[in-house]
Write a structure and sequence with these properties.
This protein is an all-alpha fold. It is built from 2 helices and no strands.
Length: about 70
């Protein structure tokens, strides 16, 4: 939990807030998710190495029924 309190230089203090914001706006989550996957694909990471877990790489909005 030390990683979440901000005491470490690369800690995840803002992770809960980012998660809450993205899960409240699924369209924004989809955009961010596609940006990450697109960057990975341009860097040579294929779908075998990094699958599209949410099924929205080509477009659409993540389904809230998916367990994040």
């Amino acid at each position: 939990m030390a990683n979440l309190d901000g005491s470490r230089s690369h800690g995840g203090r803002f992770d809960p807030a980012v998660s809450e914001a993205l899960l409240d706006d699924l369209a924004k989550l989809g955009e961010a998710y596609r940006a990450v996957l697109s960057s990975a694909r341009r860097a040579g990471v294929d779908a075998w190495e990094l699958p599209d877990f949410l099924g929205v790489e080509k477009g659409g909005t993540p389904d809230r029924r998916v367990i994040y």
